[in-house]
Every structure is written in C-alpha cells, then in structure tokens.
Amino acid sequence: MRGKRFVISVDSCKPGMRTAEAIANRYGAIILYENTVLDEHAIEHLRNIGIKAIPVYEESMISVSGVDKDWAITNDGQSFNVKYEQDVHVMKKALTDISTGKRLNKDVTDRIVNTMVRKPQENRNMINAIMRIRSIDEYTYYHCMNVSMLSMMIARWMNLDEVMVRKCAEAGLLHDVGKAKIPQEIINKPGKLTDSEFAIMKRHSEFGYMIVTEDRNFDHQVAVAVLTHHEKLDGSGYPMGLSGNMINQIARIVSVADIFDAMTANRVYKDKDTPFAVFQLMQQESFGVLDPVVLNAFLNNMTHYYIGSKVRLSTGETGEVVFMNRMDFSKPVVKVEDRFIDLAVTKSISIVEFL
Prior knowledge:
Layout: E1 5-9, E2 23-24, E3 30-32, H1 40-48, E4 53-57, H2 58-62, H3 80-99, H4 106-117, H5 123-131, H6 139-157, H7 162-174, H8 184-187, H9 195-201, H10 204-213, H11 220-228, H12 249-263, H13 275-284, H14 292-302, E5 310-313, E6 318-323, E7 333-336, E8 339-342, E9 351-354
Antiparallel strand pairs: 1-4, 2-3, 5-6, 5-9, 6-7, 7-8
Helix pairs in contact: 3-6, 4-7, 5-6, 6-7, 6-12, 6-14, 7-11, 7-12, 10-11, 11-12
C-alpha cells in the first residue's frame, strides 16, 4: 500500500492501521516492517518499548473508526500536539540518518522551523509540550524540539528581530545534532560517565558544527552556536573555553534553553528536577556562567506559565501555584484548600514535586 502518510500517537493507533515505514527500536533493530497491519499486541509492544508516535498510511486510518481527533491528522488541519509529535519523529529520522553516514537535510529542518516561527500565538501549547513527561529513550529527539521552541520564545521575549528569532529556533533544533555521532552506549548509559566517556560526549558540539557546515546553506551564526552552546561566560565551558563576548548571542540563548529543558526532563542517569528547583539554580547560581540579559528574559516570562500548576509540598499536601515571587522564583505562593502559603516566608516548607 502506498499513499499519503500520517504520523500519529501510538496511543491513537487502532488495529487495522498499516505502518508507513519500518519501525526500529532505540538500538536500530526493526520491530515492525513497512505495511505491517497493526493489532492489539503490536500496539501494546510499541507502548512498552517507549515509542510515542509512528507513521501510518492514510487509507488505513480512514478505514478505522474511533481515532482520537486530538492526535490524528485530518484534511482540515492538525492540532499542535500532532505537529509536535510529527516533528519529533522527523528529527529522530534525521539523527538516525546522520548516524548511518547520511548528510543533514536542510529542507527537513527548514520545514520544522518555518512552521514554528509562523505561530507566535502557540507559546502556551509549546510550554505545555515541554512540561509533558517524555520517554527516557526518546529524550534526545524531544529535547531538540523543546530547545528550539524555548530558544525561539526567548528571542521574542528579548524583542529580537524575526531573522534572529529564526536563527535561534534553528540553532536550538540543531544544537545536539552531533550526538548522532556519539556511541549509543555512552548516550544511554544509566550512570555517571567516566572521564574518557565524558571527553567523547563533549565532542558532540564539534561533531554538530561539522555536520551543519557540510551544507553551506546553513547560516554561519547558527553553526557557530551549535559549536559553542556549552561555552560559559566565565570561560569554564567547552570545547574552546570561550568567555564573555567571544560567545555569540544565539549560543547564549540556546544555552539557557538547553539547561532548563535538560534539568526538567527524566534522563537515563537522573530523575528530573522540579521547574521550581531549576528556577532557583538558574536564578541564584548562574552568575558569571549564563548571560544575565538572556536569563532575566527567560525567567521573567517563563515563570508566569507555571501559575495554576499543581504541586506537592514537603508537608505531603498538594496545592496550586497562585503567585510567582520575582525575588526567588522557586518560592511561589501556593494555595492549599482555603490557605495560602508563601514559601518565601514559610521556609520550612518546599515544593518537592511538580504534578
């Protein structure tokens, strides 16, 4: 069967749909071939190994009733969640292709970035996507998308022009593309890397620069940001130990986005931190490391989206964030039943879980 392909959530898959390409696990082993007719067992297997979305043929979708309209692509358009999952799948394929020796396809990244920058009204949806629980095995692909969206939003919060907004979105999308050249046993190691393994991991920014500069159509500032997104203002970063104004603005923006998304995601070697703990770290311990202008733009805008969030306190109680404290974003005011607890005042109580 050939025809139009749709990428849909595995949770929306129904028996009778046909796969539109071969599906591989994280080790590259084929688990379902193209044109496989899905049954309950196959769908459950996909869930169990952490695959979130797959491509299926339109004809097989149309013939199956009861598809979740929030996740299935229709001829009338597509929901934000569908496009997000679809773009994650595209990035996964791009990185897989690079790992097998193929070149990065700029047309692919352009399509993702073009869609993203044309929807400035989608900030709420983008942040909801970033806040969702992600499969550990799929971390790198979701991380690329999330850092791209965050970098784009930060650029807009800084009132940069649309040319720079696009460059930031593109650099965020590509910042970890060099990880396609890092051995999977290092990427997915469930523990601390050895010094030699970490030395290999740190080369991903150099590999990323080489991958991006293979195509002269990529903007040079974007390529440099891919190379330098782990540099720090005090010269403590890598790969070159650059400091101060030697680090371009795009890299400074991507760095903030990268740190936030990495720290709020589950990883193979660590559990995620609450956004509030990350806000505290970024606000209080980043002096001389992160660009203060970028960081302030991020914190002063991003934190507003957490008003209304459900949290668990160290007392065991659950509550709702109703006010963010600008002096310490990690200590908001939380409403618990009919009480308001100002965590900046009641210092014996803290947020232990973001629900």
